[in-house]
């Protein structure tokens, strides 16, 4: 099976190579079409000012699919056309020929406004900056310029290049995003099925050696499957730009979304088996589930294949036979899932509730040699087994706890996986609905009864009457408005039909201890009150708010204003040097054009992009010079020399290190080979390289000196912000379990947590990009960037985000009316331990935030100069002088070093703080005591119900996630400790010289207090 799987994966990578080669050939085909039109249709060339830019646009617009090309082409024209049309007004005010100063000023102002709306297409902004710079340079040299037609002629290269890129994607072999997404979805389906099969086989392995090999196999497959799904998500973005049936686009997006969720649950299964602790669970639990799990795997494969086939089908309507077949497949899958649920309950009862000691004993590896063999098989993947424990050892509870929660966590993700697979097929309309990962057992617990709906109607009428009586009180009205915003979130508890039928009832909660004081809010009354008190000032304020929202929507912020000023300044400097100093000809516009195509990154990326731009220009210039020397500037020979070079450089564009350099070398060679130059080719090539160097130098100078945005500082701020969000998310999750008893309250809180989790994922993505930027920044006079440590930090944050996702899933699984009774039995005895564990996590994260925000070094030379200038220029009174002198006479407070916050006087042998280890041990003991008490009460009391599978699995998943989150917090504390020392090496030496161990411990105790 492994050989067949690896063969399938090799085919996937072969298809990826052929796909990239096809894109390179289509890019070369687009350049050939541009060459033919410019060579044999002179009228088209006469309508353009700089026809050679058509090759640049054709190369930049080209993409893997038609949707990508259309998105690039339309985004380009959406920015270029308004920018060039606005120059008509400027040229009407300043009749050509304009002075060089006027041209430079107009270029700078236009560049600022073009880049101020940062949410526009990046390629469009680059092209618009280049075109506007060229236009104003020509406006200085050409006195007979037609101010109406010249900007329109500047659009010619954009239109021709984009059009030929579209034609090359359609002819002779169309390349549609619909087809690419369909093929990728089928590849993802095969990879996902193989990962699920190998993970289940590893979990239910009969011996430890089989488990070790299958676990490593599933881990490798999971990584490959994740890469396929990531590519699928990237391709589906371009679906909306193609002409096709809306149903097919909708179903493809839904299929891609569910496949991504399936791989997330597969990641949870792999995490459950990573340490091998599930082998500590009773062997009867796995042996009893081995047969049902095989049936589940077979059903999931057929169901997933059928669902992907339906999702990628081009047929708009299902036939009656297909509907019947789908219903039969879904019903069969539900029967298998019900059977598995029964077998799981029976296995749990046999393993934990039956008084058979042999079934409950630890059944892990029995000899040190066997343990060593398992660990050696893991390689770099981590230790699969720690050591052997027996029931008489003091750590027996720890291993029993880990075995139980690891098994429950695996089974929890397995049931979520199967629920998603059923959801993929069990939808007649294939509407773009959300996934059903929280509905482990399909039931009617979320549906209201007639009696409860009547109660809700009575509550609504009483709440409305209370609101009318209390309209005179502004304070109560504001409080009601605040409550209404949170109450509307609780509408998720209603089904879709009920929300349409009873729209007013959707804003109510159930009455409980937490929300019994809720009062309804009537938006019509509030709207009437607001309309009666409206005035002209309010109307003006509304207009201001609308303008602000519009600018914010398009990315026009204060930070972007600084960024736009820097870009405009760089273009002005490049324009001055390239057109006034290097060359005084009208074609000397490549300096500002170089700056235009360099924008879009922070300083680190700018350094790297500038370097690659210069390298690509030199390489493309040399190739173009050699090609023209050989071909003697013959048209067809130039075509034959250009097309292979464009194909090669387009294929290189996928390289993460040299992609941009290859792209630049491609269109630089096209500019030289196909350009109209009047002087010697050698001089033209040298001028091109020189002007590119001027543009690169201007851009790097401005990025370094004016409002420098070092990625090192940005990633530090992003790290602190993500820790704050992580702390809030953990606190909210534990609060839902320990405080929220109402279904409506829990559902509303879970939705808020889900939104916070999405924000954390966005922050995590920014940190990953900033880390790559920071590694490329030159160190100069700064401390070298500790890239490896930040990589470890980002990896830990990624695992913590995955654990938060599973905690949210467990919250979804428990927001059911019938599940709360069972959940309260577990939470009643666990609230104190959960709260204690939460406090340890939050306290540790707080100290990490404080340590990261502390400045170890003293004030910089710039801040000292600013303070000196402030004292010299400001009129200081005698009172202020007296206060300053008194402050200087007082002894300064001792500096608080980050290592003081991070230092723990008592640590475990593995480096973990003893208080965290103690909290983990207490939590494990409390969990086992609670579960054992429930098991004992079930054994002694006849007819006492066993806790249902959904509650036990979800609570086990929460316990596993919270326990693992604390372990990751310990790892995070160590890495932050390393980061503080790496970023402040000399400060660390001074710190240990000035702080004795005894003084350090005393100061640590005072800080903790």
Automatic annotation (TrEMBL):
Signal peptide: none annotated. It is a multi-pass membrane protein. Residues 569-701 form the Integral membrane bound transporter domain. Keywords: Cell membrane, Membrane, Transmembrane, Transmembrane helix. Residues 465-484 are annotated as: Disordered. It is found in: Cell membrane. InterPro entries: Memb_transporter_dom. The chain crosses the membrane at residues 21-41, 47-66, 73-91, 97-116, 159-179. Its main location: membrane. The keyword Membrane applies. It comes from the Eukaryota. Residues 465-474 have a biased composition (Polar residues). This is Integral membrane bound transporter domain-containing protein. It comes from Riccia fluitans.
């Amino acid at each position: 099976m492994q050989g067949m799987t690896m063969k399938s994966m090799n085919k996937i990578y072969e298809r990826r190579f052929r796909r990239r080669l096809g894109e390179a050939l289509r890019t070369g085909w687009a350049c050939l079409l541009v060459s033919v039109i410019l060579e044999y249709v002179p009228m088209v060339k006469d309508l353009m000012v700089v026809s050679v830019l058509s090759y640049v646009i054709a190369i930049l617009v080209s993409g893997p699919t038609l949707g990508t090309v259309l998105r690039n082409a339309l985004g380009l024209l959406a920015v270029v056309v308004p920018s060039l049309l606005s120059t008509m007004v400027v040229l009407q005010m300043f009749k050509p020929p304009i002075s060089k100063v006027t041209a430079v000023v107009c270029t700078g102002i236009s560049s600022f406004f073009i880049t101020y709306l940062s949410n526009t297409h990046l390629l469009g902004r680059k092209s618009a900056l280049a075109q506007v710079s060229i236009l104003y340079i020509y406006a200085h040299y050409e006195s007979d310029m037609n101010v109406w037609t010249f900007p329109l002629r500047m659009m010619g290269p954009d239109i021709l290049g984009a059009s030929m890129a579209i034609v090359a994607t359609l002819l002779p072999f169309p390349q549609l995003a619909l087809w690419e997404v369909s093929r990728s979805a089928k590849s993802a389906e095969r990879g996902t099925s193989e990962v699920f099969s190998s993970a289940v086989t590893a979990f239910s392995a009969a011996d430890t050696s089989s488990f070790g090999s299958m676990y490593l196999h599933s881990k490798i497959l999971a990584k490959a499957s994740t890469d396929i799904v990531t590519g699928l998500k990237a391709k589906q973005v371009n679906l909306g730009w193609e002409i096709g049936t809306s149903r097919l686009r909708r179903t493809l997006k839904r299929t891609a979304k569910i496949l991504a969720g399936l791989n997330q649950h597969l990641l949870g299964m792999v995490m459950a088996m990573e340490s091998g602790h599930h082998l500590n669970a009773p062997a009867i639990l796995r042996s009893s589930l081995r047969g049902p799990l095989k049936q589940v795997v077979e059903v999931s494969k057929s169901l997933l294949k059928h669902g992907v086939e339906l999702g990628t089908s081009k047929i708009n309507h299902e036939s009656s036979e297909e509907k019947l077949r789908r219903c039969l497949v879904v019903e069969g899958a539900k029967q298998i899932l019900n059977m598995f649920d029964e077998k799981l309950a029976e296995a749990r009862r046999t393993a934990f509730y039956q008084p058979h000691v042999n079934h409950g004993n630890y059944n892990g590896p029995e000899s040190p040699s066997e343990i060593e063999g398992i660990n050696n098989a893991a390689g770099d993947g981590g230790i699969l087994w720690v050591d052997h424990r027996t029931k008489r050892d003091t750590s027996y509870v720890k291993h029993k706890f880990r075995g139980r929660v690891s098994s429950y966590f695996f089974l929890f993700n397995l049931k979520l996986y199967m629920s998603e697979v059923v959801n993929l097929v069990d939808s007649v309309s294939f509407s773009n609905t959300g996934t059903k990962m929280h509905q482990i057992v399909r039931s009617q617990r979320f549906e209201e009864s007639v009696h409860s709906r009547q109660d809700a109607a009575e509550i609504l009428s009483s709440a409305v009457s209370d609101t009318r009586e209390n309209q005179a009180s502004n304070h109560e009205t504001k409080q009601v408005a605040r409550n209404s915003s949170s109450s509307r979130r609780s509408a998720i508890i209603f089904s879709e039909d009920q929300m349409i039928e009873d729209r007013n009832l959707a804003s109510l909660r159930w009455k409980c201890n937490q929300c019994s004081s809720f009062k309804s809010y009537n938006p019509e009354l509030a709207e009437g009150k607001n309309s009666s008190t409206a005035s002209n000032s309010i109307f003006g304020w509304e207009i201001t708010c609308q303008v602000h929202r519009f600018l914010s929507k398009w990315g026009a912020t204060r930070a972007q204003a600084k960024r736009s000023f820097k870009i405009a300044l760089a273009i002005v400097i490049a324009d001055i040097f390239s057109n006034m100093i290097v060359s005084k000809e009208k074609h000397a516009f490549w300096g500002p054009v170089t700056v235009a195509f360099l924008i879009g990154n922070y300083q680190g990326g700018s350094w790297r992009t500038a370097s690659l731009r210069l390298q690509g220009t030199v390489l493309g210039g040399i190739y173009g010079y050699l090609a023209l020397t050989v071909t003697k500037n013959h048209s067809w020979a130039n075509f034959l020399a250009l097309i292979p070079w464009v194909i090669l450089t387009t294929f290189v564009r996928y390289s993460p290190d040299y992609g941009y350099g290859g792209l630049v070398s491609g269109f630089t060679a096209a500019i030289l080979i196909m350009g109209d130059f009047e002087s010697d080719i050698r001089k033209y090539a040298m001028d091109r390289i020189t002007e590119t160097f001027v543009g690169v130098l201007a851009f790097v100078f401005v990025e370094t000196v004016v409002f420098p945005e070092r990625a090192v500082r940005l990633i530090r701020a992003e790290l602190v912000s993500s820790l704050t969000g992580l702390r809030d998310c953990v606190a909210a999750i534990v609060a839902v379990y320990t405080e929220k008893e109402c279904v409506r309250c829990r559902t509303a809180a879970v939705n808020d947590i889900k939104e916070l989790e999405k924000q954390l994922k966005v922050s995590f993505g920014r940190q990953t990009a900033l880390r790559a930027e920071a590694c490329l920044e030159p160190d100069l006079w700064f401390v070298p960037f500790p890239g490896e440590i930040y990589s470890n930090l980002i990896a830990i944050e990624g695992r913590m985000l995955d654990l938060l996702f599973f905690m949210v899933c467990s919250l979804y699984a428990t927001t059911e009316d019938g599940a709360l009774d069972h959940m309260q039995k577990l939470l009643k005895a666990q609230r104190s331990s959960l709260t204690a564990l939460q406090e340890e996590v939050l306290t540790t994260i707080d100290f990490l935030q404080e340590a990261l925000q502390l400045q170890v070094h003293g004030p910089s030379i710039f801040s000292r100069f600013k303070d000196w200038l402030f004292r010299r220029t400001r009129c200081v009174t005698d009172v202020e002088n007296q206060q300053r002198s008194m402050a200087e006479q007082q002894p300064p407070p001792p500096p608080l070093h980050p290592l003081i916050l991070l230092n723990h006087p008592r640590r475990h042998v593995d480096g973990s703080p003893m208080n965290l280890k103690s909290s983990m041990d207490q939590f494990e003991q409390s969990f086992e005591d609670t579960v054992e008490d429930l098991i004992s009460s079930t054994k002694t009391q006849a007819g006492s119900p066993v806790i249902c599978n959904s509650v036990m699995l979800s609570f086990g998943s929460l316990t596993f996630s919270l326990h693992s989150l604390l372990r990751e917090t310990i790892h995070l504390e160590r890495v932050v400790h390393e980061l503080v020392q790496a970023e402040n090496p000399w400060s660390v030496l001074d710190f240990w010289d000035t702080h004795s161990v005894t003084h350090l411990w005393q100061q640590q105790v005072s800080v903790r207090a």
